[in-house]
UniProtKB/TrEMBL annotation:
Its cofactor is Zn(2+). It catalyses: tRNA(Cys) + L-cysteine + ATP = L-cysteinyl-tRNA(Cys) + AMP + diphosphate. SUPFAM superfamilies: Anticodon-binding domain of a subclass of class I aminoacyl-tRNA synthetases, Nucleotidylyl transferase. Its EC number is 6.1.1.16. This is Cysteine--tRNA ligase. Monomer. It comes from Sulfobacillus harzensis. A motif ('HIGH' region) lies at residues 31-41. Zn(2+) binds at C29, C209, H234, E238. GO terms for biological process: cysteinyl-tRNA aminoacylation. ATP binds at K269.
Length: 472
């Protein structure tokens, strides 16, 4: 079946029909880099990574653009607090963001434009809106006339009069209507500014994405992504600007992911209830964090509690243990007429169908766990070679899309050192030197390993903080 995508504007699922057949153009709103990234920033990055992988698996050529708002009130205030230039502060946190996403196996974007590097295009865009009477200048500021857009509020499902009810709106000098929003902000002493037809200043938040998506993807692109917290005001305002500039809808599908919450409250830097991404990656392996973020459907909220991550890690261990058993297995050499065999043979179709259904990663993981169970049913029925061969193929395919297996490069020198100790401990036990064996065991435990003794010798597992083990 065709890929079905939920559009926030129409509030319904629809077949993915792209502007250019066989190609998908995507723009997503990136971070404002004024502080270290938290887990809430990682979720949309991982979600769009899976979406891109699936689209490419289905044969599409994907162009993916993710911007950085590298000049903003928050960046300026934070830079003042630290006594550093705003540009240096932003670049520092952008580089950290890249490093953290690399650990989560998020593919780099094709283009990562920054606001400060696209100022000419932004100013030209604003100037065109002023020329078309969709915007106006007032004392060095430029505002967008929201009442000129009859569709304003459709994306967020709000009426214009309702938007201002019970909300304190600071009416700036020269503003025609309290709900009009800034396209250009008059420069203030000591702050970064750029020359413009309206005097020195810098762009408002919303205009940036309209100008950069036009430059990098053209007048109409297929999918626009972001968190649900961006629907209003950011995407509502962006859509209004783009419609006024282009005279048409700029986007085929508005795609919004649910938010990371803690106790039902949105995780955010401003609320100071966030968990930094670096912090959680220091406590759990990257593949556990990555897959936990997509363990529910992308449009659903995800409550972030470490006990839930630990439970998820336990489930992943079943997949990892099977992979260790099948990764070197030969291909299947027989056709077996059995329910478990049919489940393994048709796994690819079911996995891709799950992701075709609005990128339903929760259903995709359910298919993976069911496939693991089917594999062991095949082993129990006496068809180990066939079951393991099909399971190797299936896990390889699924991992290409979901990335639930730890990267081989994460097997560090420390693991090699630990394996050498295991060999030494096995020799000590064979020689009945139990004092030495106990000493080695204590060292392994101290270095974060669980020691498992059995008839075939000692095995170890790295233990995650919180008592969960990370692989066999």
């Amino acid at each position: 079946m065709a890929i079905q995508v939920y559009d926030s504007l129409t509030r319904r699922l629809a077949p993915l029909v792209t502007r250019v057949p066989g190609r998908v153009s995507i723009y997503t709103c990136g971070v404002t880099p004024y502080d270290t990234s938290h887990v809430g920033h990682a979720r949309p990055a991982v979600v769009w990574d899976v979406i891109r992988r699936h689209l490419r698996r289905r044969g599409y050529v994907v162009t993916f653009v993710q911007n950085f708002t590298d000049i903003d009130d928050k960046i300026i205030r934070r830079a003042e607090e630290l006594g550093v230039p705003p540009a240096s502060l932003a670049d520092t946190y952008i580089q950290e963001y890249y490093q953290l996403l690399d650990r989560l196996e998020v593919m780099p974007a094709d283009f990562t434009p920054r606001v400060t590097e696209n100022m000419t295009d932004i100013i030209q865009y604003i100037n065109a809106l002023v020329s078309r009477k969709a915007a106006y200048e007032a004392d060095g500021n430029v505002f967008f006339r929201v009442r000129e857009d009859p569709e304003y509020g459709r994306l967020s499902g709000r009426r214009l009069d309702e938007m201002l009810e019970g909300v304190r709106v600071d009416v700036e000098p020269g503003k025609e209507y309290p709900g009009d929003f800034a396209l250009w902000k008059k420069g203030r002493p000591g702050e970064p500014s750029w020359d413009s037809p309206w005097g020195p200043g810098r762009p408002g938040w919303h205009i940036e994405c309209s100008a950069m998506s036009l430059r990098y993807l053209g007048e109409h692109f297929d999918m626009h992504g972001g968190g649900m917290d961006l629907i209003f005001p950011h995407h509502e305002n962006e859509r209004a600007q783009s419609r006024a500039y282009l005279g048409q809808e700029p986007v085929g599908f508005w795609v919004h992911n649910g938010l990371i919450t803690r106790g039902g409250v949105k995780m955010s830097k401003s609320l100071k209830n966030g968990v930094t991404l670096a912090e959680i990656l220091g406590r759990y392996p990257a593949h556990v964090v990555r897959t936990y973020l997509i363990s529910v459907h992308y449009r659903s909220p995800l409550d972030f509690e470490e006990r839930f991550i630990a439970d998820w890690a336990t489930g992943l261990e079943r997949i990892e243990r099977l992979w260790q058993e099948v990764k070197d297995a030969p291909s299947a050499r027989e056709i077996v007429d059995a329910e478990w065999a049919a489940a393994l043979v048709t796994f690819e179709d079911r996995l891709l169908d799950a992701l075709d259904e609005d990128f339903n990663t929760a259903r995709a993981f359910a298919e993976v766990f069911d496939m693991v169970k089917a594999t062991y049913r095949g082993v129990e029925s006496g068809h180990r070679v066939t079951a393991f061969g099909l399971a190797r193929r299936n896990l390889t395919l699924a991992n290409e899309l979901l990335r639930f297996l730890p990267k081989e490069v994460e097997q560090t020198a420390a693991d090699d050192w630990a394996e050498d100790l295991v060999k030494a401990r096995n020799r000590a036990r064979q020689q009945k030197n139990f004092a030495l064996a106990d000493s080695i065991r204590a060292v392994l435990i101290d270095r974060g390993y669980e020691v498992l003794d059995g008839p075939e010798g000692t095995r170890i597992r790295r233990v995650m903080r919180g008592g969960r083990s990370d692989g066999a």
